[in-house]
Design goal:
By secondary structure, the chain is of the alpha/beta class. The protein has helices at residues 12-24, 35-44, 61-74, 91-100, 112-122, and strands spanning 4-8, 28-32, 49-53, 82-86, 104-107. Helix 2 runs parallel beside helix 3 (61-74).
């Protein structure tokens, strides 16, 4: 059975690119365009990995991950590894991600092989 990845990203070009790349590698991919959508999808389904942008409208990626983790803990479910992707060098957000112990933190634009290696190394 294919491993399931939730991509949380508001830029359509990036979501299409990541979806195509990951499907080609044999993963099942779902897209959430914002944090609220991602939280609902994570309640409804189990994913093996989350890939999230940081800067998004409504709720940023860090806050989204925190809520998803809280919901999973309350439901008695194991945490899902997360990979953060960002196009902005924001020291505060980086520190927040490190404090959360996310699986990987990757700056856009990223090398495709580096991204896929992070996926392979962190997917359950």
């Amino acid at each position: 059975m294919a491993k399931k990845i939730l991509i949380i990203e508001d830029e359509k070009l990036i979501t299409k690119t990541l979806q195509k790349l990951l499907k080609k590698e044999g993963y099942e991919v779902e897209i959430a365009n914002n944090g609220a959508d991602a939280i609902e999808r994570a309640k409804e389904k189990d994913f093996d990995l989350i890939v999230s942008d940081i800067r998004m409208p409504l709720m940023d990626g860090i806050e989204t991950i925190k809520v998803i983790r809280e919901n999973r803990q309350e439901a008695g479910k194991p945490l899902i590894p997360e990979i953060i992707i960002t196009g902005y060098a924001d020291e505060e957000k980086y520190k927040s991600a490190v404090d959360l112990k996310v699986a990987a933190y990757i700056y856009k634009p990223f090398d495709t092989e580096e991204f896929l290696e992070a996926i392979r190394n962190n997917i359950k």
